[in-house]
C-alpha cells in the first residue's frame, strides 16, 4: 500500500538533464527542484493538461469527495450509512455493501474489493468492515436510533457479516461521532513531542471483547526494534513481485480515475506539504518500482523516524471473523478518539501482511517470531499503527456514496 511515485528527497539535487529518458515525476523533480516545476507549468501545454487531469490546484475537489461534505445532512438509516462509508479500509477498497430495511441495516462484504496477496486471508478486509460498522453504530446513536448489533447473524459462513437493528430513542451525540468527518489517515511527519501515556490510555478506551487488546510501544529500544521491522517488512513486500503488484493496483494516479472509481490511494493521502503535493500532481506518474522505492524510503525516513509511539492491536484468536470485525470497531474508535484529541494516526500493517504472506506461501516464518518478541506472550498481532502530533493536516480520501453501496 502507500505507493506514490515521486521522491521529494531528490528535489535538492543539481539539474543534470538526460533527454534520453521520458520525463516523469521523479525525473523532473530531480532536474528542476520543486520551485522550478511550478513555473514550468504556466507555459507548458502538456503540463497544463496535467493540471486539469489531476486537479492539482484544487485538491479534494469533485464528487469523489462529496461524502465528506454531506455526511451529517441525510437523516435516518441512509444517513447513518453515509457516516459508515467514511470509515478506514485497507487501501481504501471500501469493501462494504449495506442492505437498508425499515428498522435494520444488514452489512455484507463485497468480496471483489480485495487486495489479493497483500491480504491473502481477508483479515484486513473484515477489519475494514468492522471500522464501517463502528461508524454506523455511532451515527445511529447520534440520530436517535438505538442500535443493537449482531455479528455473523447467519453463522460464520452466512452472507451477512452484521445485522444492526434499530429502535427509536433519544439522540446520543458523542465526541467520537463528531470526529467522523475529520478522521483521516496521516502519512506525513509527526512532531518530536511524545503523546502522554494518559492520552494513549484514553485512545484505547476499554475493549469488552475477550482477547482483544491495544498495546503501546513507547520506550526507545522496542520502538526502534519495531521501526526496523516495519522497514524490513516494506522491503520484503516490495521484493515480492505478486504483493508489489497487488499493492500498486489500488493506486489512483490521475484525477479522472479518482472521480470514476472514488476509492483507492491517491497522492493527496501521502502527507506531502502543499508545494510538493501540487508538484507531484502535475507530473506524469512513474512506475510501480519507483513507487515501491519511494514507499520504503518514506517508511525509513518519515513514518518510522517520526513515530511518537506505536499501537498494536492483538487478539487471542486473530483468525476468528467475529474478532476481526470487533478489532475493526476498536481500531476505528481509537482513530476517532485520536482525531478528537488532535493526535494523528497512520495505519502501518506491512508486518502482518508479510506474516500472512509467509503463511500462505508456506515459507519458514521470519516476521512472526520477530514481532512476537515485542509483544506479551501469546498476544498475536492484528493491526499496527503509529501516533503522534501532526506536522500537517491529513487530506480526505475519495469515497463512494452511501446510495451507491446500498441495496
Ligand atoms: C485494516 C486496515 C489496514 C490498513 N493498512 C494500512 C497500511 O498498512 N498503510 C497505510 O498507509 N494505510 C493503511 N490503512 C489505511 C487505509 O489506507 C485508509 O483507511 C484508506 O486509504 C482511506 O483513507 P482514510 O483513512 O484517510 O479515510 C489501513 C486501513 C485498514 C482499515
Which terms would index this structure?
globular, 407 residues, 8 strands, 16 helices, 4-stranded antiparallel β-sheet, binds flavin mononucleotide, NADH Oxidase, alpha+beta, 2 domains, disordered N terminus
Describe the structure.
The chain has 407 residues and is of the alpha+beta class. It has 2 domains: 63-182 and 396-405, NADH Oxidase, CATH 3.40.109; 197-388, NADH Oxidase, CATH 3.40.109.10. The protein contains 16 helices and 8 strands. It has a 4-stranded antiparallel β-sheet, covered by helices on one side. A 4-stranded antiparallel β-sheet has the order 5-6-8-7. Strand 1 (96-101) and strand 2 form a beta hairpin. Helix 5 (76-84) crosses helix 6, helix 6 (123-142) packs across helix 14 (321-340) and helix 9 (220-239) packs antiparallel against helix 13. The longest helix has 20 residues, at 123-142. The protein is globular and about 50 Å long. The protein starts with 24 loop residues before the first helix and ends in a 19-residue tail after the last strand. Residues 1-23 and 31-52 have low confidence and may be disordered. The structure holds flavin mononucleotide. Flavin mononucleotide binds next to helix 6.
Amino acid at each position: 500500500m502507500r505507493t506514490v511515485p515521486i521522491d521529494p528527497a531528490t528535489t535538492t539535487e543539481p539539474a543534470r538533464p538526460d533527454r534520453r529518458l521520458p520525463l516523469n515525476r521523479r525525473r523532473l523533480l530531480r532536474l528542476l527542484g520543486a520551485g522550478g516545476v511550478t513555473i514550468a507549468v504556466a507555459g507548458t501545454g502538456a503540463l497544463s493538461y496535467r493540471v486539469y487531469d489531476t486537479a492539482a490546484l484544487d485538491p479534494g475537489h469533485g464528487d469523489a469527495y462529496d461524502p465528506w461534505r454531506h455526511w451529517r445532512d441525510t437523516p435516518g438509516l441512509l444517513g447513518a450509512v453515509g457516516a459508515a462509508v467514511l470509515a478506514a479500509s485497507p487501501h481504501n477498497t471500501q469493501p462494504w455493501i449495506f442492505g437498508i430495511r425499515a428498522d435494520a441495516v444488514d452489512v455484507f462484504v463485497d468480496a471483489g474489493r480485495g487486495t489479493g496477496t497483500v491480504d491473502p486471508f481477508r483479515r484486513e478486509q473484515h477489519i475494514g468492515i468492522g471500522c464501517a460498522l463502528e461508524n454506523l453504530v455511532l451515527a445511529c446513536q447520534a440520530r436517535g436510533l438505538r442500535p443493537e448489533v449482531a455479528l455473523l447473524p447467519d453463522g460464520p459462513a452466512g452472507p451477512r457479516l452484521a445485522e444492526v437493528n434499530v429502535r427509536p430513542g433519544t439522540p446520543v451525540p458523542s465526541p467520537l461521532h463528531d470526529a467522523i468527518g475529520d478522521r483521516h489517515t496521516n502519512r506525513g511527519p509527526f512532531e518530536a513531542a511524545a503523546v502522554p501515556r494518559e492520552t494513549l490510555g484514553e485512545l484505547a478506551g476499554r475493549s469488552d471483547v475477550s482477547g482483544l487488546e491495544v498495546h503501546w510501544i513507547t520506550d526507545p529500544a522496542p520502538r526502534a526494534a519495531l521501526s526496523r521491522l516495519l522497514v524490513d517488512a516494506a522491503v520484503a513486500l516490495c521484493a515480492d513481485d505478486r504483493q508489489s503488484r497487488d499493492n500498486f493496483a489500488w493506486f489512483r494516479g490521475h484525477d479522472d480515475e479518482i472521480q470514476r472509481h472514488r476509492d483507492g490511494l491517491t497522492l493527496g493521502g501521502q502527507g506531502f506539504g502543499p508545494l510538493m503535493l501540487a508538484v507531484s500532481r502535475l507530473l506524469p506518474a512513474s512506475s510501480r518500482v519507483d513507487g515501491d522505492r519511494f514507499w520504503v524510503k518514506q517508511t525509513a525516513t518519515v513514518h518510522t523516524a517520526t513515530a511518537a509511539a506505536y499501537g498494536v492491536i492483538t487478539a487471542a484468536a486473530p483468525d476468528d471473523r467475529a474478532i476481526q470485525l470487533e478489532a475493526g470497531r476498536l481500531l476505528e474508535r481509537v482513530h476517532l478518539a485520536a482525531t478528537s484529541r488532535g493526535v494523528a494516526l497512520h495505519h502501518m500493517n506491512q508486518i502482518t501482511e508479510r506474516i500472512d504472506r509467509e503463511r500462505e506461501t508456506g515459507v519458514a516464518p521470519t516476521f512472526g517470531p520477530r514481532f512476537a518478541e515485542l509483544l506479551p506472550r501469546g498476544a498475536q498481532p492484528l493491526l499496527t499503527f503509529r501516533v503522534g502530533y501532526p506536522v500537517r493536516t491529513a487530506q480526505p480520501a475519495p469515497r463512494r456514496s452511501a446510495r451507491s453501496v446500498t441495496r
